[in-house]
Amino acid sequence: MKENVIKSxxxxxxxxxxxxxxxxxxxxxxxxxxxxxxxSGTSIGALVREAEHAxxxxxxxxxxxxxxxxxxxxxxWIDLLHQSVYLDxxxxxxxxxxxxxxxxxxxxxxxxxxxxxx
Length: 118
Description:
By secondary structure, this protein is an all-alpha fold. The protein has 4 helices and no strands. The mean pLDDT is about 95.
């Protein structure tokens, strides 16, 4: 069976976000921004999983479009955590690289799904 790249990468990203959340809570004592990141960062993979069982092509595109919005929101929280010195430069760049890959995958899948649906 062929690997579902967006499914595995979004899950790996969610796991990274959970670990980052735990670090920010225990080591940095940051409780508000980290919770926002936890919500948006883990919902990407959840929406990708939901899209697997979409009722139609339009439903599939809609679910992945919401995942794209959540990824964009996650980028905001990561940048804010970095700018407020809760997240160091190396960690920020590393997690943003993973997020950029997810963003590109989501955009590509949405775009091709829209073309195939016509």
